[in-house]
Amino acid sequence: MKFRIIGNVVPAVEVLFEQAGEEMITQSGGMAWMSDGISMTTDTNGGALSGLGRMFAGESLFMAHYRAERPGATIAFASTVPGKVVPIRLREHPNGLICQKGSFLCSQSSVQLKIEFTRRLSSGFFGGEGFILEKLSGQGSAFLEVDGDVVEKELAAGEVIKVDTGNVVAFQSGIPYEIETVRGFKNIFFGGEGLFLTRLTGPGKVILQTQNIRDFANSLSGMLPRNN
């Protein structure tokens, strides 16, 4: 399998199948275009429980499988908002990669996508991303959808970064993920950053995004006309 990233504003990843039998998976409705010579099947990709878990994590209940029937077939998966498409090679993350819900775009069928429970209950209820995250593991390549620009940081042992939860895309499995309360009455009510921040502690790789799509949507909603 070969791939290329197309576009700068709302990009897509176009995959070239070099051999018959190669396969890509995506959430239902994630395909943008494809050539002839590709078959499609849809299932829960691991059973009903796996499908329900993904649904709670912000993905679709069903996954679409696209299989090459002959060499040279091509297929593309497009992002949904302006940003970047980030390729992930799972061999560089032998313990897996934890992703926020909605960041998974597509992957080779050899990549496993499972729900991941946060270790602390408070992280799920107060973190702004829900109790369930996603874990990518296995072999092959996956592609993440990033809102805005992508920022990659390699945290040293013990190094801490505090991030607005909506700006976290993914981090290596094993990095502690906690929710920290903003201190100070004035900071909470007038600081404009919300009540909670995500605290990530190294060592390990962290992928961030410059756009928080929920904040952007909220800013636009205030400008929309309302019926009297």
Summarize the model shown:
The chain is mainly β.
Structural class: mainly beta
Shape: globular
The quaternary structure here is single chain
| Overall pLDDT level | 82
**If you compute it from the alpha carbons, what radius of gyration comes out, rounded to the nearest whole angstrom?**
19 Å
Give the number of DSSP strands.
Answer: 19
Task: Give the SSE string.
Answer: EEEEEHEEEEEEHEEEEEEHEEH
Instruction: Count structural domains.
Output: 1
Taken as a percent bin, the fraction of beta residues is over 45%
What share of residues is helical?
10-25%
CATH-defined topology: Double-stranded beta-helix
Which architecture would the CATH scheme give at its second level?
4-Layer Sandwich
Sheet with the most strands: spatial strand order? 5-6-3-10-13-8
Please give a structural write-up.
By secondary structure, the protein is mainly β. It has one domain: Double-stranded beta-helix. It is 13% helix and 46% strand. It contains 4 helices and 19 strands. It has helices at 48-56, 121-126, 185-190, 213-221; strands at 2-6, 12-16, 23-27, 31-34, 38-43, 63-68, 74-78, 83-89, 97-99, 104-108, 111-117, 132-138, 141-147, 150-155, 160-163, 168-172, 177-181, 196-201, 204-209. Strands 5-6-3-10-13-8 form a 6-stranded antiparallel sheet, with no helix packed on it. A 6-stranded antiparallel sheet has the order 11-12-9-16-19-14. A hairpin with a 5-residue loop joins strand 1 (2-6) and strand 2. The N and C termini lie far apart (55 Å).
